[in-house]
Write a structure and sequence with these properties.
Length: 746
C-alpha cells in the first residue's frame, strides 16, 4: 500500500464532509447557528479505507472531515491575531479579562472587580507591542555582533514575513502566575510575530537558566516577585545569560524600587514596568507585524516526569488555531465566562483561554498571590460558566461533596442527596447527550452543592492531562448538574486533540480525534495489546496533523526518537480506538506500568485516582511497587480535620494530635495505619482488584509538592524522583513493617 503523505492542513471546506461546512458561512453564523456540532458528527471518527498495514491499525479521522485533516473552522481565521481581530469586531464591548483589583500597600486582593473589553485590549496590544520593540531596538546593552537573538531584533521588521518553524524571531520569555498581563503579553507576541516561551516556579533555578540560555532570550516579562530571581540568575551566569537585556514588570515600579532598577542596570538589564512600555509605544507607534500560519507561535517547555532537562515543544500559529477548533466543535458558543486556573505556562490552559476568546467569552483570573487553597474563594467571587482543571482537583471536589451528601454523618442528608444523585445518574445514563433534567432536584438540591464550590453558573467542566475515574465524572456530573467532558492531548499536540461528549451516557472515552489530527495505534504484543482486539484496535497511540508540534527546540535527537519518517508522533500512551465510534480510550502507558512479583501488571495512576475519589481523607496518593515485591505501598496526603476525627475515634487523646507533628506521629503508627487501610480499602470494595490495593502507607499532610520537585505544573507525579525522595519510607514499609493487611480479606 502506498504511504499516505503527511497532511498539509488547509482550512476546512471539504465537499465530502457534512453540510455544515461551506465556504459561505460567516464567523458569527457558524458560532451561533451551528456550534457545537451534533455529537453524531463531531464525536465520531472513521477509518481511512485501505490504511491498515502490518502492526499498525487503520488511520482514523474525525467524521466531519474524513477526506483529510484541517487546521481551521473558518477560512478567514488562520492565526491568533486573526482570531482576536474577529472577536474585537463581533464582541468588542464584551469583557475579555476580569480580575480582582490588588491592594499593593497591604498585598491583598480587594473586593473590586476590574474588567477590560476586547476593544480596550486591542488598543493595548498596539501600544505594548510598539513599546516592546522600541525598547529592544534602542537598548544600550544590545550587541548584535555577539548575540544572534540581538541581530534578530534588528532584522525583525524586514524578516517577519519569512518566519516559519525553522526561521523565527528572538524569543520573549514570560514568568508569572496566571494574570491578565500574561495573556496580554501572549497576544502581543503573536500580533508582532514574536515567538515566546514561559518559565514557571517548579522548574527551579537550574532549569530556568537552561531555558533562558538555550533560547538566548533578550527579554523577560514577569511579575515583580520574580525580578530578583532573574537578576540573581544572571549574576550567577553572566556569560550564559548575556543576551538578556530587558525585563518588563507586570506590577508597578515605584520610586522605592530605584535600587532594583539600578541593580538591573549593573547586570546589563533595563528594567521597566509594563505601563512604561505601553506609554513608550504610544509615543513611538508601530504597525503590527502579523504572522502567517507557519510562524512559530511558542516554545512550550515540558518538564516531563523523569526529572531530565525539559524539551522545548515548537508550536506554530497553525497548531494554535487547530487546537481552538477542537474546543469550538465540542463546546460551541455556550460558556460566556471561564476561570483561568491551571498554569498558563502549560499549553492546556492556553488552549482553553484562546478558545474562549473566539466567541467573546470573559476570562476570569485568580487573585494575585493565589494558590490552590484560594481556588474556591476565587470561584465564588467570579462564578464562571465553565472550568477546566486536572483530575486531582476534581477528586478533591468529589471527596468534599461526598462528605456532605452520600457519606454525610446526617442520616437525613445522606438519604435525600443519595436518592437525588443516584436518580440524576440514572437519567444521565439513558443516552449520549441526555442532561438528565429533573424538575425538583435541579431547582432545590443541586444548586446548593454548586454554590458550595462557587460553581453556581457553571454549565460544564473539562478535564485532561491525566486519567480520571469514571465514577468521579458520573458523580460530579450528577451532583453539580453539569456537563463533564474528558479530553486527551499532550504539549506536543497543543493540549487537547480529542474531547468527549459532555453528557456521554457511559463516560470513559476521550472522544474522537479533532479535525486537525488523525490517529492510529501500533500494537504492543509484549503488553497484550493488538490491532485485532475485541472492541477495537489497541496499542501505542500515534498522532499526525496540523495541530501537532514541528519538533523539539534545538534537540534533533529527541525529535527523531518521537516523530517517524511519515510524520507520526509516537505518544507513549496506550489507547484503544473504539470500533463502533472511533473514539479514544487511554488504557495504559508504554513505560508507566510495573509488574509485581506474582506477575500481575499494575497501572499506578488508575489506583491513585480510585483512592482519592473514594475516600475524602486522602488528598494525595503516590502508589509504588516493583517486580521483587508482591504488594503495593503508598505515600498518602491526608485531610487534617478528617485525619484528626479518625484518630479520635481510635481513642487517641486530643492533646497529642493538636500539632501537625503530633498528628503525623500518631497516624503513622502501624496500628493506626492498619485501621485506616481497613477503612479505605473497605470503601474501595470491588473498584480495584486485590493486588491493586495498598498494603501499607506513609502519611503526610502534603507529601507531593512542586517545591520538592515531585510533581509537574499539571500535578503529574514525577515517579522516579518521588521513589527516590521517599526511599527511606518505602524501604521501611517493605522491609520493616511489611504488609499491614496480609491477613485481612480484600
Amino acid at each position: 500500500m502506498a504511504i499516505l503523505p503527511p497532511p498539509t492542513g488547509e482550512h476546512i471546506a471539504p465537499p465530502e464532509a457534512s453540510s455544515f461546512f461551506k465556504e459561505g458561512y460567516g464567523y458569527v453564523d457558524l458560532l451561533h447557528k451551528y456550534l457545537p456540532f451534533p455529537g453524531t458528527l463531531s464525536d465520531r471518527a472513521v477509518p481511512v479505507p485501505g490504511s491498515q498495514k502490518g502492526d499498525l491499525s487503520a488511520i482514523y479521522r474525525n467524521a466531519l472531515s474524513p477526506g483529510g485533516v484541517k487546521d481551521s473552522l473558518f477560512p478567514s481565521v488562520r492565526t491568533l491575531p486573526q482570531l482576536f481581530d474577529n472577536a474585537v469586531k463581533h464582541f468588542g464591548d464584551n469583557s475579555v479579562f476580569t480580575f480582582r483589583e490588588h491592594d499593593y500597600v497591604n498585598n491583598t486582593p480587594t473586593e473590586n472587580k476590574v474588567s477590560l473589553s476586547y476593544k480596550q485590549v486591542d488598543g493595548l496590544i498596539n501600544d505594548y507591542g510598539a513599546g516592546l520593540l522600541y525598547l529592544l531596538e534602542v537598548n544600550p546593552f544590545k550587541n548584535a555582533a555577539k548575540f544572534a537573538s540581538h541581530a534578530k531584533i534588528d532584522a525583525h521588521e524586514l524578516a517577519y514575513k519569512s518566519y516559519d518553524k525553522d526561521n523565527f524571531s528572538f524569543v520573549l520569555t514570560i514568568y508569572s502566575a496566571n494574570r491578565h498581563e500574561w495573556v496580554l503579553t501572549d497576544l502581543v507576541s503573536s500580533a508582532y510575530s514574536i515567538t515566546n516561551t514561559a518559565l514557571y516556579d517548579t522548574l527551579g533555578a537550574l532549569t530556568s537558566e537552561f531555558i533562558l540560555e538555550l533560547t538566548e532570550s533578550p527579554v523577560v516579562a514577569l511579575s515583580k516577585n520574580h525580578i530578583v530571581d532573574i537578576l540573581d540568575l544572571k549574576a550567577q551566569n553572566p556569560e550564559q545569560l548575556g543576551a538578556l537585556v530587558l525585563m518588563i514588570s507586570f506590577d508597578p515600579l515605584t520610586p522605592q524600587d530605584s535600587e532594583l532598577v539600578a541593580r538591573a542596570r549593573s547586570e546589563n538589564i533595563v528594567l521597566v514596568s509594563m505601563d512604561q512600555v505601553i506609554k513608550t509605544g504610544q509615543v513611538f507607534p508601530k504597525e503590527r507585524l502579523l504572522p502567517s500560519p507557519d510562524t512559530l507561535y511558542t516554545i512550550s517547555f515540558t518538564s516531563g516526569t523523569t526529572g531530565s532537562k525539559p524539551k522545548g515543544v515548537m508550536l506554530q500559529q497553525r497548531a494554535a488555531i487547530s487546537a481552538v477548533s477542537l474546543v469550538l466543535v465540542g463546546s460551541g458558543y455556550e460558556a460566556k465566562s471561564n476561570f483561568c486556573f491551571l498554569p498558563l505556562a502549560h499549553i492546556y490552559e492556553r488552549q482553553m483561554t484562546l478558545s474562549g476568546m473566539t466567541y467573546g467569552s470573559t476570562i476570569n483570573f485568580p487573585q494575585l498571590n493565589g494558590s490552590p487553597l484560594t481556588l474556591v474563594e476565587d470561584l465564588k467571587f467570579f462564578k464562571p460558566e465553565a472550568l477546566s482543571n486536572v483530575p486531582r482537583v476534581y477528586t478533591k471536589f468529589e471527596a468534599a461533596l461526598k462528605a456532605a451528601t452520600v457519606d454525610s454523618n446526617s442520616s437525613i442528608a445522606k438519604a435525600i442527596f443519595g436518592k437525588a444523585i443516584a436518580t440524576k445518574q440514572e437519567l444521565q445514563e439513558r443516552s449520549d447527550g441526555d442532561k438528565g433534567s429533573h424538575f425538583l432536584y435541579d431547582r432545590l438540591l443541586f444548586p446548593k452543592l454548586k454554590a458550595a464550590l462557587g460553581l453556581d453558573n457553571t454549565q460544564f467542566l473539562v478535564t485532561g492531562s491525566a486519567p480520571i475515574s469514571v465514577s468521579t465524572i458520573k458523580f460530579l456530573r450528577a451532583a453539580l448538574n453539569v456537563g463533564f467532558a474528558q479530553g486527551y492531548g499532550l504539549t506536543e499536540s497543543f493540549a487537547g486533540m480529542s474531547l468527549s461528549n459532555k453528557y456521554e451516557a457511559q463516560p470513559g472515552t476521550c472522544g474522537a480525534p479533532c479535525i486537525g489530527c488523525e490517529i492510529k495505534v501500533q500494537q504492543l504484543p509484549e503488553m497484550g495489546y493488538g490491532i485485532n482486539d475485541e472492541g477495537g484496535p489497541r496499542g501505542e497511540l500515534l498522532l499526525r496533523g496540523p495541530q501537532m508540534f514541528t519538533g523539539y527546540f534545538k534537540n534533533e535527537e529527541e525529535t527523531k526518537k518521537t516523530i517517524d519518517d511519515e510524520g507520526w508522533f509516537h505518544t507513549g500512551d496506550v489507547a484503544q480506538i473504539v470500533a463502533s465510534t472511533g473514539q479514544i480510550k487511554i488504557i495504559d502507558r508504554v513505560k508507566n506500568f510495573f509488574k509485581l512479583s506474582q506477575g500481575e501488571y499494575v497501572t499506578p495512576e488508575k489506583i491513585e485516582n480510585t483512592y482519592m475519589s473514594t475516600d475524602p481523607i486522602i488528598s494525595q496518593c503516590f502508589v509504588h511497587g516493583n517486580s521483587t515485591k508482591s504488594f503495593l505501598v503508598g505515600i498518602v496526603g491526608i485531610d487534617v480535620p478528617l485525619a484528626t476525627k479518625f484518630l479520635l475515634k481510635q481513642g487517641v487523646a486530643k492533646s497529642s494530635i493538636e500539632s501537625p507533628e503530633g498528628l503525623l506521629k500518631e497516624i503513622n503508627k502501624p496500628a493506626h495505619k492498619k485501621a485506616l487501610l481497613t477503612q479505605i480499602n473497605g470503601n474501595i470494595k470491588n473498584k480495584l482488584l486485590g493486588f491493586e490495593k495498598l498494603h501499607n502507607i506513609y502519611l503526610e499532610v502534603e507529601p507531593l509538592t512542586g517545591e520538592r520537585n515531585l510533581i509537574t505544573p499539571t500535578v503529574k507525579i514525577k515517579r522516579p524522583i518521588a521513589a527516590k525522595f521517599f526511599k527511606e519510607q518505602i524501604d521501611n514499609m517493605y522491609e520493616v513493617e511489611g504488609s499491614l493487611i496480609n491477613s485481612s480479606k480484600l
